[in-house]
Write the structure tokens for this entry.
Amino acid sequence: MARPRTSVRIFHMKLSLSVLALVASVFAPFVTAPHWSPQVSGGSATLRGVSAVSDTVAWASGSGNTILRTADGGRTWQPLTVTADKLDFRDVDAIDARTAYLLSIGTGAASRIYKTTDAGAHWTLQFTNPDPRGFFDAMTFWDADRGIVVGDSVDGRFSIFLTSDSGRTWTAAPPEGLPAALPNEGAFAASGTNVAVYGNDVWFGTGAGAKARVLHSRDRGRTWTVAETPLIAGPSAGIFSVAFRDAMHGVVVGGDYKKEDNATDNLAVTSDGGRTWTLVKEHALSGFRSVVAYAPGTASSLIAVGPQGADWSTDDGRTWAPIEGPGFHAFSFSKTGAVGWGAGGRGSLARLNVK
């Protein structure tokens, strides 16, 4: 009699464990879904740049000469001083905990690049836009030495400058290697992410004209090709952000920044390095998005963020689900991909917990 009861108990225990495993597998995506934790910046500037170095160190930038740095995961943010000039810092690219590049935007000399190597205690002006009609939009770096800054077109020619010596010198991309710009074609200085690099490749998204296009270079910016995308285009519409997880797979997002709730034709994906782009309509983004980013350490997980909210994808951008919580102008993952930071209007900052 004892053996049957023991067998029954073992059977029920195995069944219970199986049920628990099934329940865990069903609810795991919800338990581990990314979620925001609001933080205090200590100011009210509009923040449009953010760059995370690790799970503890991140930088944020914005209007009114604002540059902030955290070294404790965002519990506190330290304001830093760069210059007494009135500037709008739309992009910050951190190389490590002590080294970062900072981009200000504006016509002519208002477009500048600064650099720090001592965690923001001191800043060096490295480059000023040489064209009085020029306007820088975003920058990014392959590594500590090599980087690129892109700007609006002037007289039908794109403004692209390159450095290979840690920013000490910036050289214009060879004009003979650049495709002609369309009338009024440029970019949006919205999040510092409308230019992306991978390996020797670099992609640059445009808007504000008749078409939203992607310029692509396979030789670190010396020669370029251009491809049209199906994203909505116009004076306030186009591509606002570009992200690639390898040399073939990428995503562009955007829309019309004057219609933040409109999710029409604002997302496209590529699997051929940007030669062709496919519009995503079903299970797509829930509004205008100013930044898209792949999560490091994952095969195909992405976040897309805009002023009205954020969306999450785990299949290379083919389907998306909204993330509960606020929206932001800019976003950056830490290098581990475990956390990220959103930065937005009125000094808003929040940490995204992914894992």
Remarks:
- The first helix runs from residue 2 to 31.
- The chain has a mean pLDDT of 92.
- The two ends are 49 Å apart (CA to CA).
